Amino acid sequence: MAPNAEQVCQAITRYMGDRLHLNTEFVADIPWQQRECLFDAGEIQVCWICGLPYVWKADRWPATVELLVAPVPQGDRYQGQPIYFSDVVVRQDSPFQSFADLRGSTWAYNEPRSHSGYLSTRAYLARLGETTGYFGRAVESGAHQRSLQMILDGMIDASAIDSTVLETELRLNPSLAAQIRVIDTFGPSPAPPWVVHRTLPPALKAQLRSHFLEMHIDPTGRKILQQGAIARFVAVTNSDYNPIREMAQQARFAPLQQQISA
């Protein structure tokens, strides 16, 4: 997840260690790409992962990943469900009023393995029938928070930002609200799940899931969830992520950037 979620992830890691009476470690001192490789190798056993790489891993044979739980974000827009959105953000003083105004503009996506910042945009364009490229230029920023800074610095015109990442940034930096606008929203989409490596013993996995599902009724757990604006965790199934699979199929036909003829 985004760096602004690491504090609550670390707190959850400690909480689960206390409940399971195990030594736990939150791996945060290496890039996320390396963390994902360690998870694939079974050297990290639990991971909070974007829905797009989850379906890639789940559909691979043999699958190395199993679902644990998914978060239900706080806020009326989430309707008590494990969902989230991609908010299309521009600078407050920009002329853009809707997504339709962004044709030919400069767009940033966080990275191509992201559902919220990349796949959801391409799937949306496919549904619009935009199959020849929509933006004048599309650049990879590396992270949602970097995309936001590029908008503020005038380096790009717009980007699709994970709604929970954006809401966290606004809580941490209230002055940001006066500097940006949300002009459109993609979604809802299935929330990024917490997953375990398939080598985790079944009994331990069951205990871990139980503690996640009961966090919101435990005073210590509830306090940690509130820090991350999470209402609770709920059980999810592989089929809950079929919408992402469908969007991945749609997105194949919709590039972000207009092709330049020689």
Structure, explained:
36% of the residues lie in helices and 21% in strands. With 262 residues, the chain is of the alpha+beta class. The protein folds into 2 domains: 3-74 and 191-246, D-Maltodextrin-Binding Protein, domain 2, CATH 3.40.190; 83-189, Periplasmic binding protein-like II (D-Maltodextrin-Binding Protein, domain 2, 3-Layer(aba) Sandwich), CATH 3.40.190. It has a 5-stranded mixed sheet, with helices on both faces. Helix 1 packs antiparallel against helix 8 (219-227) and helix 4 (115-127) crosses helix 9 (242-251). The longest helix has 15 residues, at 6-20. The relative contact order is 0.23.
Give a summary of the structure in a few sentences.
By secondary structure, this protein is an alpha+beta fold. It is built from 9 helices and 9 strands.
Give the integer mean of the pLDDT values.
94
SSE string? HHEHEEEHEHEHEEHHEH
CATH architecture descriptor text of the largest domain: 3-Layer(aba) Sandwich
How large is the share of residues in beta strands?
A: 15-25%
Q: What is Rg?
A: 19 Å
Q: How does the major sheet shape up?
A: 5 strands, mixed
Shape: globular
Distance between the termini: 39 Å
| Count of domain modules | 2
Helix content: 25-40%
Query: Low-confidence parts lasting 5 or more residues at pLDDT below 50?
Result: none
Q: Number of DSSP helices?
A: 9
Overall CATH class of the largest domain: Alpha Beta
